[in-house]
């Protein structure tokens, strides 16, 4: 990354993680854990542990970007090989597509909140012309495509210029969260009875549900964590991203989850129903007080804050991030903007409203991707910190022939693929059972409930072990042909050497 494009400061990364943390996923995770039989205290304990783990993984995965100024696509070449790197890139792109679709659907609900408040009962009670099997109402579908039109201009903004829009979104969503909290507590005259909910499970069933909820929560963040270097490479200073990753990320997610429980509990006392999703809560309020000016004004500003949050999330964690990775697949035809648009189109094609119907479906989606991504994170961290001991031959990362230190065997590092497979295959039987809804006890299902921890650990150990048994030449020390200066090739002669060798 050229020095003139390294514009991000610690404030920008704090804003990044505030936007990433204060969102619908964080809001719903606490109350979703309650649905698994956990008490409020147990649910929050799992959220705190999960947030700490997410923060640590974000620091480790982002280290390559902030210290070497290379993105995920380039950094992956050191672990997987010059050609093998396409495999983790494809997996992360697919994750980005799924989450892009989900976030756009929620963004459409934010648009509907705003339009409901402006237009009133005519739009709130619009006749649904779609069958129940579609799992989406006509008004929601219209708003979904309006949101797509709104997010398109943001995709045209270069990543290094996104700090100001993110600061604005941070202020709006924070104000919305605080406003909804104050309203719910005052209107309900307290936090409601849901806050005092005790555990409905015990023994081993409770323990496994706690682990399942914890790893499912972490699994939802693995796509963003794995590609952290795509954003940390824009850091002006080597440690510019640390405050956001290690402090802002855990704090904002934990607070959002806890406040989500408070608002859900207070709202259940008011309306006699449990709304785990803020969009559904606000839409319900609008349907009950369609003509009340105060309700329309309040839901308008709340919807506007949620809309700003969803627009930012689609850029930060999905379209632009995955678009960066997609450019590697065909750089002569795909740039970041075109890649982001491709991600958007695929996000629509997956019919995202089918993924967010129930809490169980939502958790299954989160868990499903983690079995593929957790071993990849294990490989990346093991390779950089344990095998190479934070040393990279930067010039070799751009050489696509056998003279590169990262060519390995035909451009593939078999050690990484074996490690990833060893961390994945034991989890597949349990995952299939979970997707099919098979409740009969099996040890495979228990293993699947800890898939994040198992996949990461096995891949880390196997990758390191294979590099010890089958060491690779030139994996440590200085580059044999090009010196570096804080992540940049030192002079023009070094660049000429790269061109000659390619």
Give the arrangement of secondary structure elements.
Elements: H1 10-21, H2 24-35, H3 40-68, H4 72-80, H5 86-119, H6 121-124, H7 138-151, H8 163-188, H9 203-219, H10 222-226, H11 229-232, H12 242-271, H13 278-288, H14 293-326, H15 336-349, H16 359-387, H17 414-424, H18 428-436, H19 443-448, H20 451-469, E1 484-485, E2 488-489, H21 492-501
Antiparallel strand pairs: 1-2
Nutshell version of this structure?
This protein is mainly α and 502 residues long. The chain contains 21 helices and 2 strands. Strands 1-2 form a two-stranded antiparallel sheet.
Strand order of the largest sheet: 1-2
In total, the number of strands is: 2
What order do the SSEs take from the amino end to the carboxyl end, as H and E?
HHHHHHHHHHHHHHHHHHHHEEH
- Helicity level, as a percent range? 55-70%
Number of helical segments with 4 or more residues? 21
Q: What Rg do the Cα atoms give?
A: 23 Å
Average pLDDT, rounded to a whole number, is 82
Shape, please? globular
> Separation of termini?
20 Å
- Class inferred from helices and paired strands: mainly alpha
Q: Mind summarizing the main beta sheet? A: 2 strands, antiparallel
- Kindly estimate the percentage of residues that lie in beta strands according to DSSP: under 5%
Low-confidence stretches: 480-502
Oligomer: single chain
């Amino acid at each position: 990354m050229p020095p003139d494009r390294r514009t991000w400061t610690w404030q920008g990364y704090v804003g990044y993680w505030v936007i990433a943390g204060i969102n619908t996923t964080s809001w719903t995770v606490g109350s979703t854990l309650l649905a698994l039989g956990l008490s409020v205290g147990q649910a929050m304990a799992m959220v705190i542990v999960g947030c700490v783990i997410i923060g640590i993984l974000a620091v480790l995965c982002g280290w390559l970007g902030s210290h070497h100024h290379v993105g995920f696509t380039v950094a992956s070449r050191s672990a997987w090989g010059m050609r093998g790197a396409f495999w983790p890139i494809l997996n992360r792109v697919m994750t980005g597509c799924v989450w892009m679709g989900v976030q756009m659907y929620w963004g459409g609900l934010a648009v509907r909140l705003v339009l409901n408040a402006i237009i009133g009962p005519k739009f709130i009670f619009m006749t649904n012309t779609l069958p129940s099997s579609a799992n989406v109402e006509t008004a929601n579908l219209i708003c979904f495509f309006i949101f797509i039109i709104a997010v398109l201009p943001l995709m045209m903004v270069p990543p290094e210029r996104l700090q100001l829009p993110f600061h604005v979104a941070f202020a709006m969503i924070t104000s919305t969260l605080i406003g909804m909290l104050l309203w719910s507590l005052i209107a309900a005259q307290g936090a409601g009875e849901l806050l005092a909910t005790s555990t409905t499970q015990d023994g081993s069933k409770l323990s496994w549900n706690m682990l399942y909820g914890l790893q499912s929560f972490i699994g939802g963040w693995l796509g963003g964590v794995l590609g952290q270097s795509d954003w940390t490479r824009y850091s002006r200073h080597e440690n510019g991203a640390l405050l956001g990753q290690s402090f802002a990320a855990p704090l904002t997610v934990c607070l959002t989850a806890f406040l989500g429980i408070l608002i859900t509990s207070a709202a259940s006392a008011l309306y006699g129903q449990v709304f785990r999703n803020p969009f559904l809560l606000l839409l319900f309020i609008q349907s009950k007080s369609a003509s009340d000016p105060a309700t329309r004004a309040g839901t308008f500003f709340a919807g506007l804050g949620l809309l700003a949050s969803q627009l930012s999330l689609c850029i930060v964690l999905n379209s632009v991030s995955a678009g960066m990775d997609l450019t590697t697949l065909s750089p002569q035809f795909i740039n970041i903007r075109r890649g982001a648009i491709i991600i958007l189109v695929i996000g629509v094609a997956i019919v995202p409203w089918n993924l967010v119907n129930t809490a169980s479906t939502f958790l299954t989606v989160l868990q499903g991707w983690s079995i593929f991504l957790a071993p990849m994170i294990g490989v990346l961290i093991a390779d950089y910190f344990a095998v190479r001991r934070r040393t990279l031959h930067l010039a070799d990362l751009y050489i696509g022939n056998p003279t590169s230190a990262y060519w390995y065997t035909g451009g593939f590092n078999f050690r990484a693929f074996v490690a990833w497979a060893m961390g994945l295959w034991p989890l597949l039987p349990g995952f299939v059972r979970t997707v099919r809804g098979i409740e009969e006890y099996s040890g495979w299902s228990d293993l699947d409930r800890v898939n994040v921890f198992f996949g990461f650990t096995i891949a880390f150990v196997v990758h390191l072990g294979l590099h010890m048994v089958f060491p690779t030449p030139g994996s440590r020390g200085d580059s044999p042909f090009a010196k570096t200066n804080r992540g940049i090739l030192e002079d023009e002669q070094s660049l000429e050497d790269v061109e000659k060798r390619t």
